[in-house]
Specification:
This protein is α+β, with helices and mostly antiparallel strands. It folds into 3 domains: about 15-25 and about 450-570, Aldehyde Oxidoreductase, domain 4, CATH 3.30.365; about 30-125 and about 200-250 and about 255-290, Aldehyde oxidase/xanthine dehydrogenase, a/b hammerhead (Aldehyde Oxidoreductase, domain 3), CATH 3.90.1170; about 290-450 and about 570-720, Aldehyde oxidase/xanthine dehydrogenase, molybdopterin binding domain (Aldehyde Oxidoreductase, domain 4, 2-Layer Sandwich).
Length: about 725
């Protein structure tokens, strides 16, 4: 029976669901391989030193040891998604505690670890730099004195004002100085945020071996083609000499875009002549790889007597850690690092953002790169302006929200803005939900660009009358393959059971840039829709007038057919949202208890209602962690809480009732009007919590996380601004 969106309106059954719940799914550590050697690292015990010598002779005599590589063996080979500044193994100096100095391959992991512990490390300690301000002083030690020799993928590395700056971005538009000169009030506030983790359950895992004279790699990386190309540059190989294979990926949240072990294993399997495998621990990941940037953001905004924004200045300084290798952008900054007043009309702005080298764990991409930091600062700043001027916080946002034709903080002109719509819907919803006695309420606005770019999938009719889709994009747990199945089944009006989705290796699947930037549903799903429509047209040519099932059966009897389908969307739309958080504060302890959350989410068409709900609720849970508990504690370069006991992440017990209101009025370019959704809901949670705390207690917390201790200090102390001293109005 045919009806419009018959499949899209039906709750899904995940393609891989049975495989995962029965334990049959193969994650990277599960792949069997005869004769595999286990790899362990000898890591630096200090934060900054030049390497005099590494002696592995005693370790090489240990039982079960086959091969040891040191930095001398692999000198010149470096890792990086854009800037290749991270040595495969440290050769001239170490730049953080945990830096990899040598790799040991042995019969068992225990033997590899025992041998690694016997490696002798002779070094000269150098002055470390742990603070972003110290790193930028004129006499600061330069952590990468040979940085001009590093490879930079895709163009030339931009100039920098200081040797310890990884990358920087400056934006200026409009008459900034005139805007400040004409101001009724000028507000100036500073905010701080710590390093934090993406926190996937599965740590980095990889295996490598040589087959048919090519290096084959099983990886948890979510962008296998990009990893292949990066490895080829790093190891001076042709990309065709490397094959990347993905198993199931146990979560991502931004962490699985960077790989630092596969390069070592590729060299190790050549040296050992055997397959090699490395299974990281959660602690290894937490203390040595790809955290969310901490840093400091200062915002200065000029307003008129009605609170309308006239001009804006921002200074964003992020702690990039020891290496910039995890960042894929040309300016070596998280994408949203300079969007410091996102969602608002800003007629004149001057924004400078930079990431800085320190002798600490490297910063990289985590969910909504750069936006949790800038959103916390901006949405707190807007609330502080509203309360100081005696304007309702929602009203101030509505006065300044971006409308069609307005210029945003980056100088971009907006069209088809849904931001006024989501704010009005939030107002209407909150009118029906007055905050209960004893609760504080805080709101925040959010917006994020929907993905753009291109993707290709291969689609075929098989001899057994099924539709197969081959894609080069992995499913990192968000349900990508289920989405592709639903798109094709809906377009052809056939049962989902007749559509099979396969993820291929870099050797057999069409090229795909991988998971990231919430691109999979709108872009890869768009390619699947293009393919399905081409199949439908081809079937009509072959056998007009028949039912689709009969057409497929006839085509199958004639041998079937296949082709590649490409979708390209050059410029993304925006998803928009508004959130309200109700909470209680225990005035004796400062403890915060979340009561209710309302989220208005403009996401266009819905391909998979269960997955949409999961992404939005999961994002809120992620945001709760950012708001209340998550902090990677780094003391003198040493991560002191690299485990799930001491690094606190939210559980279901920390998530209150959440009321989701989906806005689908403005369709996106993705299949059936879909927009990006995966990175919409996490960023506004922390500022909404901060705003609610001030609404209830009068205490403004200017740093993350918003802990009971900070709130209690504000309640009992003389200052109502805690965490960071804001300079006020």
């Amino acid at each position: 029976m045919t009806s419009q969106h018959r499949i899209l309106a039906t709750p899904d059954v995940r393609v891989e669901g049975r495989t995962k719940v029965t334990g049959a799914a193969l994650f990277a550590a599960d792949f069997p391989h005869l004769g595999v050697l286990e790899v362990a690292y000898f890591r630096s015990p200090i934060a900054h030193a030049s390497i005099r010598a590494v002696d592995a002779s005693a370790a090489l005599r240990m039982p079960g040891v086959h091969t040891i590589l040191t930095g001398t063996d692999v000198a010149g080979h470096r890792i990086g998604r854009r800037l290749q500044d991270w040595p495969v193994l440290a050769d001239d100096r170490v730049r953080m505690i945990g830096d990899r100095i040598a790799a040991v391959a042995a019969d068992t992991l225990e033997q590899a670890r025992a041998a690694a512990a016997r490696i002798d490390f002779d070094y000269e300690e150098l002055n470390p730099v742990f603070d972003i301000d110290e790193a930028l002083e004129s006499d600061a030690p330069i952590l990468h004195p040979l940085s001009e020799t590093y490879r930079f993928l895709g163009g030339e590395r931009p100039n920098r004002a200081h040797g310890n700056i990884q990358g920087e971005r400056s934006i200026t538009h409009g008459a900034v100085d005139s805007g400040f000169a004409a101001a009724f009030r000028v507000f100036d506030h500073t905010f701080e945020m710590p390093k934090s983790l993406a926190g996937p359950l599965e740590p980095r895992t990889s295996m490598a071996w040589i087959e048919d004279e090519r290096i084959r790699v099983i990886s948890t990386n979510k962008s296998p083609f990009r990893l292949r190309d990066e490895m080829a540059v790093s190891l001076d190989l042709d990309p065709e000499e490397i094959v990347i294979i993905n198993g199931y990926i146990g979560g991502d949240f931004g962490a699985k875009g960077l790989s630092i072990d596969e390069h070592v294993l590729a060299l190790m399997t050549r040296a050992a002549g055997r397959p090699v495998r490395l299974v990281s621990s959660w602690a290894d990941d937490a203390s040595t790889s790809n955290c969310r940037h901490g840093g400091r953001i200062r915002l200065r905004t000029a307003v008129d007597a009605d609170g309308q924004f006239l001009a804006h200045e921002a200074w964003v300084t992020l702690d990039g850690g020891a290496y910039a290798a995890a960042k894929p952008n040309a300016d070596l900054l998280p994408a949203k690092a300079s969007t410091t007043l996102g969602g608002y009309r800003v007629p004149a702005a001057r924004v400078h953002a930079r990431s800085v080298y320190t002798n600490t764990v490297p910063g990289g991409n985590a969910r909504s790169p750069g936006q949790p930091q800038t959103s916390f600062a901006a949405e707190s700043h807007v609330d502080m302006i509203a309360r100081d001027m005696g304007i309702d916080p929602l009203e101030l946002r509505q006065r300044n929200v971006l409308r069609d034709g307005d210029i945003d903080v980056t100088g971009h002109r907006w069209e088809h803005s849904m931001l006024p719509v989501v704010l009005e819907k939030l107002r209407a919803e909150l009118a029906h939900r007055p905050a209960a006695a004893g609760l504080g309420r805080g709101i925040a606005l959010t917006t994020r660009g929907s993905a753009s770019g291109s993707a290709t999938v291969r689609i075929r009719i098989t001899a057994d009358a099924t539709i197969e889709i081959l894609t080069g994009v992995p499913d990192q747990g968000a349900g990508a393959y289920t989405m592709l199945q639903r798109v094709v089944a809906e377009a052809l009006d056939i049962d989902v059971e007749s559509v099979f989705v396969h993820g291929g290796s870099t050797d057999d699947a069409p090229y795909d840039r991988g998971v990231g930037g919430s691109r999979v549903t709108p872009i890869v799903g768009g390619a699947a829709l293009v393919g399905a429509r081409r199949v439908k047209a081809r079937l009509e040519e072959l056998s007009p007038g028949m039912t689709t099932d009969d057409q497929i059966a006839l085509a199958a009897s004639q041998g079937g057919f296949e082709f590649d389908a490409e979708f390209n969307h050059p410029s993304g739309a925006h998803t928009s949202g508004a959130i309200a958080v109700d909470l209680a504060v225990d005035r004796q302890t400062g403890a915060i208890t979340l009561s209710d959350i309302v989220l208005i989410a403009d996401i266009g068409g819905v391909v998979n209602p269960v997955a949409v709900q999961g992404q939005l609720l999961g994002g809120i849970a992620n945001g709760i962690g950012t708001a209340l508990m998550e902090e990677l504690v780094v003391e003198q370069g040493n991560v002191t809480n690299p485990n799930m006991s001491d690094y606190k992440m939210p559980t279901v017990c920390d998530v209150p009732d959440v009321h989701l209101i989906i806005v689908s009025d403005d369709p996106g370019a993705g299949p059936f009007g879909a927009k990006s959704v995966g990175e919409l809901s996490n960023s506004p949670v922390a500022p909404a919590v901060a705003n609610a705390v001030e609404h209830l207690t009068g205490v403004r917390v200017l740093s993350l996380p918003i802990t009971a201790e900070k709130v209690l200090n504000g309640i009992s102390g003389s200052s109502r601004e805690v965490g960071v001293v804001g300079s006020g109005a």
